[in-house]
Specification:
The chain is of the alpha/beta class and about 700 residues long. The chain is about 45% helix and about 10% strand. The chain has four domains: about 120 residues, no CATH class; about 70 residues, Threonyl-tRNA Synthetase, Chain A, domain 2 (2-Layer Sandwich), CATH 3.30.980.40; about 280 residues, Rossmann fold; about 60 residues, Arc Repressor Mutant, subunit A. The protein is built from 23 helices and 16 strands. The chain has a ten-stranded mixed beta sheet. It has a four-stranded antiparallel beta sheet with strand order 1-2-4-3. The two termini are about 75 Å apart.
Length: about 700
């Protein structure tokens, strides 16, 4: 028997427990007073106590309670009742000591006094409660009057401002002050059939007229119906404040939304990814990698999601979530090894092909295997849960893969689009990142249609940040509103595009989240695992994860083969260590050329006079390399101009104007320079540029 059970049994056996510290109510107070008076009167009569003593004690009690009541500001009737109770009780005690307390007259009068005391105590208690509630209500009314006055002043100012700037008459229906204290919202009703987007296009002018601080905006959005609008006015620039990822690692679900950051009003902004894909755009230095880790943190906390990551840039996006677990660095509290924070990481082209093939196979097999389950739940969407988890495919710089002209990248793009197009209902969605919100990135209809969750991290960058393409129909959004790293704009079907900022997540938090969520990661259901096959089952094999484990940099350099080693022509003209030695390479090469000339018609020397072209071996390596040209004479000036342009680079047309040459000649020369490593070509469709390697 437990201690709690024994205590309960003991209490039941001993009867009800009395709380001697509790205060008296109307009944117990009257009972205590009358029984006390009876006891004193009986004792005093038996001992012949002077009756005046009881009267004196009653008077002192009445005086004491009156003083105490004045301190707590009791009502006059309460003070009079308490004083009268003491005096009546003292008078009865004095009379009873004199005449005897045990007569029927004495006992009857005492009972009558007790009933009167109880009724009076109840009455004054109700009266005091009513007075207290009325005082609180009056205080609330005073606060409401002050708040209402402030809101009326705000409403009047904005009615006049909108009329003056937008030439629209509006009626303010409500003003809501944000709990965070960062601003307020106005519920407007524009007159004359004016829609909210007409007000939205004047957002910057309204912000300037209201003299809002830098980073604060007056964002206009749709209201309860088409004839109303909501104006969110930010008065405190929270985007400039650094905020770390919340230390609350509680479980999440893809069905209830993933927190990706916070709005200017302090509220978390959620991404609902059960049926929506996501597109995250951010140039270098905007905080896109940090944002990606924030997304992976939310997916790791989810109990019904498996995260598969493709990052052909050495797998850098997923390595912090994987490598400590593979190396055995992390242990759970019970000593068991920690599972990786992502379920599959592909950092090479070959591994990405295996991952995409497995993802497509899983989706196709689920369509057949779970028909009965979907019929049971009367739905055409696969019921995602911890037993049948959703597969979230995260592709870093995946938009660049989709628009690439490389043959291998086209194969990946084909599979990515097939996965997006076919597996929404079967719990397969994607999160794709890109370097810029350009037409080439958003040119794919499937991306525009499926990626309804969109994020643009600006970081102050203006090139390639076409917000109208990312958030069509959303006016008043400007890049300069979010000049801070990690800040930008986020829009979902539930929350229109508006300012937001991602939390800063550090490597130590990634480790903590990986440990905290290790037991939370679901296992791929048997049906899906069988469809994924051996490529999925062996994804953590040593030979396939060797590139994750061995990250020791090569400090010795690339070892060069010894001269003459290996097969192929030994073009000793490139070596100078034996030049001039009798019987050395010079003599050998002279005889070699004589034999070649005897057998083949060699190419003419470029220093010789022009002659008819001839076919044959062109041993140009034997000629003086100082006579070769690495490009036209104007190319160094063009490269210098491109270097001065910085990260923005220059288009071929701009270079042609700079050097005064035709665009065709300039394109060819710049392309040759890029092949030699003197320039870097950045393919952004119509906005493609050449960048100097120092700024690439």
């Amino acid at each position: 028997m437990s201690a709690t059970t024994a205590a309960k049994k003991k209490q039941a056996d001993s009867g009800p427990v009395l709380d001697w510290t509790a205060g008296h109510g109307p009944v117990t107070g009257a009972l205590s007073a009358t029984t006390g008076a009876l006891a004193i009167a009986t004792t005093g009569a038996a001992l012949s106590m002077p009756p005046a003593w009881a009267l004196a004690v009653g008077g002192a009690g009445a005086l004491g309670h009156t003083v105490a009541g004045l301190k707590v500001r009791n009502a006059g009737r309460t003070l009079a009742f308490k004083a009268a109770s003491w005096l009546v009780g003292a008078g009865w005690t004095t009379w009873a000591i004199t005449t005897g307390p045990l007569s029927w007259a004495a006992l009857g009068s005492l009972a009558t006094i007790g009933v009167g005391m109880g009724a009076g105590a109840r009455s004054v208690a109700l009266y005091e409660e009513a007075r207290e509630e009325e005082a609180l209500a009056a205080e609330r009314r005073q606060v409401a009057r002050e708040v209402t006055a402030e809101r009326r002043a705000i409403a009047a100012a904005w009615v006049e401002r909108i009329q003056r700037i937008c030439s629209v008459t509006v009626k303010v229906l409500a003003v809501e002050m944000w709990e965070s204290g960062n601003g307020y919202s106005l519920d407007l009703e524009p007159q004359g059939g004016t829609t909210y987007d007409r007000l939205a296009q004047h957002g910057p002018a309204l912000s300037a007229d209201a003299k809002l601080p830098h980073g604060c905006t007056a964002a206009v959005g749709p209201g309860a119906h088409q004839g109303r609008a909501i104006v969110d006015v930010t008065t405190r620039n929270v985007l400039a404040e650094p905020r770390s990822y919340p230390e609350d690692y509680s479980p999440l679900s893809v069905l209830t939304g993933m927190p990706w950051g916070f709005r200017t009003n302090g509220d978390d902004v959620l991404a609902y990814l059960r049926e929506q894909c996501a597109l995250v755009v951010g140039p270098t230095g905007s905080g896109k990698t940090n944002m990606l880790h924030t997304i992976l943190a939310g997916l790791a906390r989810a109990e019904d999601v498996l995260t598969w990551v493709i990052d052909l840039n050495a797998g850098s996006a997923g390595l912090p979530w994987v490598r400590p677990s593979l190396g055995g660095e992390l242990k759970q509290a019970d000593g068991n090894p920690v599972r990786p924070g992502v379920d599959w990481l592909a950092g090479t082209y070959e591994e990405a092909l295996k991952l995409l093939d497995a993802a497509i196979a899983v989706g196709l097999h689920r369509k057949r295997a779970y028909q009965e389950l979907m019929a049971k739940h009367d739905t055409d969407l696969l019921p995602v849960s911890a037993k049948i988890p959703q597969i979230m495919l995260v592709i870093d710089e995946g938009a660049e893969i989709l628009v690439s002209t490389d043959r291998r990248m086209k194969e990946l793009a084909k599979r990515i689009l097939e996965f997006i197009r076919m597996h929404r209902s079967m719990g397969g969605r994607t999160i794709i990142t890109a370097l810029g919100a350009t037409g080439s990135v958003l040119g794919n209809l499937i991306i525009r249609r499926e990626a309804k969750v969109r994020v643009v991290l600006t970081g102050g960058e203006t090139e390639g940040m076409d917000l109208s393409k990312m958030f069509p129909g959303r006016r008043g959004l400007r890049v300069d509103q979010a000049p801070f790293k990690g800040a930008g704009f986020m829009g979902t079907p539930e929350s229109p595009g508006a300012l937001f900022k991602a939390w800063r997540i550090k490597p130590s938090q990634i480790r903590d989240i990986t440990i905290a969520t290790s037991d939370r990661h679901p296992r791929l259901d048997t049906v899906s695992a069988n469809a994924a096959g051996a490529d999925y089952a062996r994804r953590w094999d040593a030979e396939r994860t060797a590139w994750m484990r061995d990250l020791t940099p090569d400090t010795t350099g690339t070892e060069q083969p010894a001269p003459g080693a290996g097969g192929g022509l030994n073009l000793s003209a490139h070596r100078t260590d034996q030049a001039g030695k009798p019987g050395g390479d010079d003599d050998l090469m002279r005889r070699f050329r004589e034999e070649i000339d005897a057998q083949f018609a060699t190419a003419p020397d470029p220093d010789a006079p022009p002659a008819a072209p001839a076919n044959g071996l062109n041993l140009s390596a034997l000629r003086d390399s100082a006579g070769r040209e690495d490009g036209p004479d104007w190319l160094p000036d063009a490269i210098a101009a491109i270097k001065e342009a910085g990260r923005a680079g220059m288009k071929p047309s701009a270079v042609a104007e700079k050097v005064g040459r035709s665009r065709q000649a300039v394109r060819k020369a710049l392309k040759d320079a890029a092949e030699r490593g003197e320039l870097v070509y950045q393919d952004n469709g119509p906005h493609s540029v050449y960048v100097h390697p120092d700024h690439a």
